[in-house]
Specification:
single chain; alpha/beta; six-stranded parallel beta sheet; 9 helices; 6 strands; about 10% strand; HAD-like_hydrolase; magnesium
């Protein structure tokens, strides 16, 4: 790590600043209720939602092939057909998708303590939101949780030539803020994108948010620091800057 103080912090969005996984689970529960009450599905309702969750986790989205709404409606259509058999039911798939999506967005909120932390940090350093994913999906999340005003800049992977962990998107972020990679810290919950990307770009430090005490694979990228909550970040940044002072 270089001898300059931290000048900028890049934050991931999903499951770092907002509980996307929890919001998604709430959406699935609403769909299960719909399928059981309105359509009289029994255990098939949970099976369908489990299948959709698997499809979402394996999703490869190429914006030039299909819009995200069509792709995700197709996940529901396939899951219903795989579980129930018979003809495809696009109308029911759309109903399930839009209920899941709207419920999910309702529960994507920036907690008050996270807002306070961002507000205080921004008095000392530049803050940038760096999120992978489809442009429409991520913009909807950013609007739902009303987080844009807490950042000096917002960069969405789906709007760029390359996403995390490619170094190019990190260099783009540095240029936006007028800083060097060695001035910056990346904070995120995903080793393969957030941490690997920060390492690839030669950032000052990478901070892995490991809420559940997950044991990483031996082959996984190794972060400079590990915390269980994003709220531990201010104290960590102070200790990084103290090391710089001592070294200097």
């Amino acid at each position: 790590m270089g001898l300059s103080r931290v000048r900028a912090v890049f934050f991931d969005l999903d499951n770092t600043l907002i509980d996307t996984a929890g919001a998604s689970r709430r959406g699935m529960l609403e769909v299960i209720k719909l399928l059981q009450s309105k359509y009289h599905y029994k255990e098939e309702a949970e099976i369908i939602c489990d299948k959709v969750q698997v499809k979402l986790s394996k999703e490869c989205f190429h914006p030039y092939n299909m819009c995200i709404t069509d792709l995700r409606t197709s996940h529901w259509e396939e899951a219903i057909q795989e579980t129930k058999g018979g003809a495809a039911d696009r109308k029911l798939a759309e109903e399930c998708y839009f209920l899941w999506k709207s419920t999910r967005l309702q529960h994507m909120t920036l907690a008050e303590d996270v807002k306070a932390m961002l507000t205080e940090l921004r008095k000392e350093v530049c803050l940038l939101l760096l999120t992978n994913g489809d442009r429409q999906t991520q913009r909807e999340k950013i609007e739902a949780c009303a987080c844009q005003s807490y950042f000096d800049a917002v960069v969405i992977g789906g709007e760029q030539r390359e996403e995390k962990p490619a170094p190019s998107i990190f260099y783009y972020c540095c240029n936006l803020l007028g800083v060097q990679p060695g001035d910056c810290v990346m904070v995120g919950d995903t080793l393969e994108t957030d941490i690997q990307g920060g390492l690839n770009a030669g950032l000052k430090a990478t901070v892995w948010i490991n809420k559940n005490g997950t044991v990483p694979l031996k082959s996984s990228p190794v972060p400079h620091y590990i915390v269980s909550s994003v709220l531990e970040l201010p104290a960590l940044l102070q200790s990084i800057d103290r090391k710089v002072s001592i070294s200097a």
